[in-house]
Write a structure and sequence with these properties.
Layout (H helix, E strand, L loop, with lengths): L5 H60 L1
Amino acid sequence: MAPRSGERTRKQLRESAREGQDYLMREGAELRDSVVDKVNRTKRAAKATAEGIGVALEVGKEQLMG
């Protein structure tokens, strides 16, 4: 029941650190993709709203001008 050797312990620590790093990289990429998607959807919605306001202003202007 001897403890692991220093070399084996260091190897296990490296593997654990690498797994943690891989996990963080995956999660970070998913978060980035999610944020980019939400930003793009927000931009499209803002553009559509602005276009709708522009059309409504033109219609109102035409109605006022006759």
